[in-house]
């Protein structure tokens, strides 16, 4: 395998994670330079997540139909153009529109990453590739906060916030060029026929749920948010019924429901849901505590997450060796580290109150970083372990959608708990108290992750007598 193949593939993971987080540190600049109001700022931050999550299943399916290299290159090229447009935006409306476009283009390229790891990387190298995927996924978001803060402080050529988007342009040009030269070609193994009802139904149902989850708190949870949330359930149910009918009649559904027959796929998705719900909401709560409660600047708050990101990357890379030595016990151990880190933070806040400082939080964050690094790559490997090559894009799209939707749900639910406990005129003690209450909710989710990992590593019961017992689903090479 060409040594440059994996860096090219993972560049999409890094860029999408980086751009998801980098705008968090730039919102004051958008407000002062473009005179963006609260609604525009909210859409700049959350609009990317809307279109990204809503388009992931479709993006994965397009890769299965038209070829993963082709969709990766097209998605990366479009993402690069969208980043350039964001950097050149002259009004809040333009920036919002280009961020929505950026999310859609990310949805086209990101599902191809895991699909290419599954199909283009040789089997002996796949566990190492999955470990690097986990490391880049964990580090990209934190790099967005840290590097974004540095770029804003540097004010390169007097451009202010614009370099946080323009930095993607040279990276994207190099990645597209390298992808066309290095990635294996060929069309998808299925006839190029897309399911328009599935595209509209799944994307629409996800949008009906994601928009109120992201905007509900800021808007005060008006009636339309609850109507949209309620409508998302029958919309998704009707779409799934259509997909099942299409499968039975020999059609080509957008969502391959055969994926959900695999025990490892379903349990892995369940672990992914509880893990991402807890992890994403914990990061948001701590960011609010560090900045609004403890008075840190966005750059200082971002740097506080640096050790956690480093440990996530290191343990992701070491995880496959640990599994080789200690077996599948490493997966629940990783989930346990996450739970212990959250528990340590909650206990610190209870014991120290408003005397808590970022150093105490940083120590506990290191435990969560170890937990994330041990858990995430192994869970992804378990989810994709039984996927056929012609299902790789669809499976990657479902997995990525689950991650995004779970993160948005966690931020909305745990965030609502945090702000309800915070009150209307909060002082520093109020922030520590609200963060403690929110972290107990995250701890419950982390405990659920531990339990689910125990089921995931159990051997699956064979359907018929077999001369040898089946191994646990989790690949020991991870």
From TrEMBL:
It holds the Pfam family MFS_1. SUPFAM superfamilies: MFS general substrate transporter. InterPro entries: MFS, MFS_dom, MFS_trans_sf. Keywords: Membrane, Transmembrane, Transmembrane helix. The chain crosses the membrane at residues 40-59, 71-90, 96-117, 129-152, 164-184, 196-215, 221-242, 269-293, 299-318, 330-347, 359-384, 405-425, 437-457. Residues 5-461 form the Major facilitator superfamily (MFS) profile domain. It is found in: Cell membrane. GO terms for cellular component: plasma membrane. GO terms for molecular function: transmembrane transporter activity. It is a multi-pass membrane protein. It comes from the Bacteria. Its main location: membrane. This is MFS transporter.
